[in-house]
Design a protein that fits this description.
Blueprint (H helix, E strand, L loop, with lengths): L2 H9 L10 E13 L5 E3 L7 E17 L7 E2 L5 E6 L11 E3 L5 E3 L4 E4 L6 E9 L4 E3 L17 E2 H14 L14
């Protein structure tokens, strides 16, 4: 993965979770990192609690729990740019949603900071929180159930996914949530 060749360069720009108050269910229009199918690895600085994920940078409306002001893209003094990881339906047409069992580690990236790859501005490295409890869903893993335990895929609890998707669909004027679940085997 290209990410791991450059992540040492951008790792210093990612520090901790975005500060400030959470607003709950906020749709913003602008650049954001989309991590719905992101592969992640434990962060060597805090491997029990943090992961580093390779996400894509998108432009448009997205769902998060932080304010639009907190989610604005920022240019850092060293020339790198930061964005915040939020959620959209952008990958629904090209990926399928897989359910994973409780106890398998996964990465919660919603509203976490990301540094745009200076070599490819359509990619970002995001610092996410490792979760280990609760059933969860991901657009990663290519519908291979065994991959739930092999990586720290970016995901969400099923309730959080459905709640955020319902809110986003309503705000976008969609009659139903666009979903593409993995086929049952």
């Amino acid at each position: 993965m290209k990410l791991f060749a450059v992540w040492f360069v951008v790792l210093g720009a990612i520090s901790m979770h975005c500060g400030g108050a959470f607003a709950d269910n906020v749709i913003c229009d602008g650049p954001y990192a989309l991590c719905t199918s992101a592969p992640c690895v434990p962060d060597p600085r805090d491997p029990q609690n943090k992961s580093i994920c390779e996400c894509v940078v998108e432009m448009g409306k997205s769902f998060g729990n932080s304010t639009c002001e907190e989610r604005k893209a920022k240019a850092l003094p060293d020339g790198t740019k930061t964005v915040v990881s939020t959620y959209s339906f952008e990958q629904v047409p090209v990926t399928q949603l897989m359910s994973c069992p409780s106890g398998k580690p996964w990465s919660n990236c919603l509203d976490y900071p990301c540094t745009v790859d200076p070599l490819d501005t359509k990619r970002a490295v995001c610092s996410c929180k490792i979760e280990r409890q609760g059933e969860w869903v991901t657009y990663g893993g290519s519908c291979v159930q065994g991959s739930c335990g092999l990586g720290y895929w970016s995901g969400a609890t099923k309730d959080a996914y459905l709640g955020g998707s319902k809110y986003l669909a309503k705000e976008l004027g969609l009659k139903e949530i666009p979903m593409n679940w993995c086929a049952k085997k």
